[in-house]
Amino acid sequence: MSASLISLNVGQPRPLAYRDKHVSSGFRKSPVQAAEVLWLGETGLEGDAQADLKNHGGPDKAVCVYPLEHYPYWSARLDRSLEPGAFGENFSTERLLEPEVCVGDVYRVGGAVVQVSQPRQPCFKMAARHGVKELAWWVQKAGFTGFYFRCLEPGEVRVGSDIALQERSAAGVTVEEANRVMHHDKRDVAGIQCLLAVPELAANWRRTFEKRLVDAREDAPSRL
């Protein structure tokens, strides 16, 4: 069964309160009208932008995806109603969950073809947006992170588009597994090696795991 694009969300950078100051952020996303068609290119959606281009956006993070199945959990935990886009995602989806989606999977969405590049790594702006300082940690711990698409073939997308699997990653490393190694079992050398063997893994995650592998090898003699 194909997954579905339930809400298409975009936003421009604007001030976001954080501690005793304001930072510029594109985290706040608003749903577009159901009939609206947006162009998805290699660096993102028409009408969307990021303030921090070092840590957000770029070809490996053209689209932020978040499963709507997680919303009831967060609504209960945060004790508030949440609308699509509340987690800063561009695509609010159904039937695309972290234990099932693999890094490197290729999907067709409307006229575009996209590929899973990495899990989403929650940051302080998520906490700032909702006024809950622990929120990024809660998301990381729960594993309800969502993930990113890179755009392989630009095209038009709209609300209601099917998200149809075109090619399953041969490596079979799920977003859930990538989160485990990144956040919970950071010295799992076998897990790191499995992720580094995924050619489609985003460059920034690859650099992190390469460094961890070097550190693990350097530390090994001291533990003998």
From TrEMBL:
Residues 32-166 form the MOSC domain. PANTHER family: PROTEIN YIIM (PTHR30212). GO terms for molecular function: catalytic activity; molybdenum ion binding; pyridoxal phosphate binding. InterPro entries: Benzoxazolinone_Detox_Enz, MoCF_Sase_C, Pyrv_Knase-like_insert_dom_sf, Tri_helical_YiiM-like. It comes from uncultured Rubrobacteraceae bacterium. This is Uncharacterized protein conserved in bacteria.
